[in-house]
Amino acid sequence: MIIEKKGAYAPFFYTRNMKSYSLILIFIFASCMGLKAQTLKIMSYNIHVGQDGANKDQLKNIAEFIKSSRADIIGLQEVDSVCNRSNKVDQMKFLAEYTGMHYAYARHFAYDGGSYGIGILSRYPLSDIKDHRVILTSDGKSDAATRALLTAAISPAGKKITFATVHMDYRDSRSRVAQSDEMVSLFKGMKYPVILTGDFNAIPGTKEILNLETIFTDTGVNSDFTYPVVNASKKIDFVMVSKAHLSKVKKAEVSPVAFSDHLPIISTVKIKY
């Protein structure tokens, strides 16, 4: 019933069993918290055009690994699209069909009868897919060639998240610092959670990584070595989440599978809105 306090109606439903009432409150609170946070399993994987370190085709094994990992969303680098060197396979389409996931692809440049680029696999439908491009500055020219920066929106539980993947320049730090500057400028004003994955070609503590960490939190630790695949000694692959939206890192790991020249890095995180 609704009880009255000092002449005013109080919107309070009374139960004689206060233990039951407490349980109801706990349930409501937990339900509301669930609406404000989302747990996602995120992977970043440089697949080396579907080949291992000996250039042997491993695309099906990569697909099987991704499927068995039960990751929710994956950022992929070094992806071929109908290139001669990888048997004219549209690799993102193959991976999507094998895993039953949604996908997006952005090319860095045309190559070997097809193109070479990066991609996203997702259990959730993708929307607002964009290739923002990041500059290359190693030759000292501000209008140098660009590379893909692929973003897409997902909406688990009806809440929007921006997911991004990038393959930063391998040649020198000047280029990567410029690319990190562009990414910080792009993502710092976003109201929604942002997940950034990729092969950054830089180790923790470098200027380009510190730059990204002004707005992102690395979900792993510095000893998450991902390269080379045998006796890995460098962490150059990352899963980052916008600082304001990372609630908890539930698990972070590097999977010891030798299907590429990189190891995949996986983080299970709780994201708040």
Give an account of the 3D structure.
The protein has 273 residues and is an alpha+beta fold. Helix content is 22%, strand content 37%. Strand 5 (102-111) and strand 6 (114-122) form a beta hairpin. The chain is globular, with a radius of gyration of 22 Å.
Please state the average pLDDT score.
Answer: 89
Low-confidence region ranges: 1-16, 30-35
**Proportion in helices:** 10-25%
- Placed side by side, the strands forming the largest sheet appear as 5-6-4-3-16-15
Distance between the termini: 35 Å
CATH topology of the largest domain: Deoxyribonuclease I, Chain A
Q: What is the molecular shape? A: globular
Largest sheet: 6 strands, mixed
Number of helices: 5
Summing up helix and strand content along with how strands pair, one would put the structural category as alpha+beta
Any key phrases for this structure?
six-stranded mixed beta sheet, single chain, globular, disordered N terminus, alpha+beta, Deoxyribonuclease I, Chain A
